[in-house]
Amino acid sequence: MAARVLVAVAVVITFAVVALYVSVIRGQSGPATPDVLTVPFLAAYQVLMALLLLASLLVPPAVRPALRAAAAAGLLVLGWLGAMSIGIPLLLAAGLAMGSTVLAIDARPGRRILISVAFAAVVAIALLVAGFEFSWHYLVCPPTGESGGTTASFLGHASSYDCNNGVLTVHQAISSR
User: Fold this and answer.
1) pLDDT, tens digit (0-9, with 9 covering 90-100), for 53-77
2) Pairing mode, strands 158-164 and 167-174
């Protein structure tokens, strides 16, 4: 029962953060950013983490720890990265998801469960990193005006770009190592 409450509260917090995040981004004025997929990716990733938590309420007990661990790891890393904006509530949701993960592990202890938990957490974080890398490097220039900047990268593949009346020019990759 306690695990269900932890999961439910974590899901509500995560969906609330998604709604708030999307509404704040839509309410901002000014020129659009060239990395057009970052906001949709972040919203979709958070929804995926909430859905993993919800799914953990419906699956057999042996699968629950892995789903909850994946969501906890994803929300923890995303919360840490976004600590200055949307991160604090996500860290709270991650803590609740971790608590429900521990309860699920305690209900079915064993090496196989621990391996599945670790694997699920790694996959969730890898998906987050891959999604960021893709969304940060998929650039779309506005049809008019000039701008430029540098893409971000976790993997050391940042590059600079220029937008000139809808034409994108990407310059050689900047080594961040």
Assistant:
1) 999 999 999 999 999 999 999 999 9
2) antiparallel
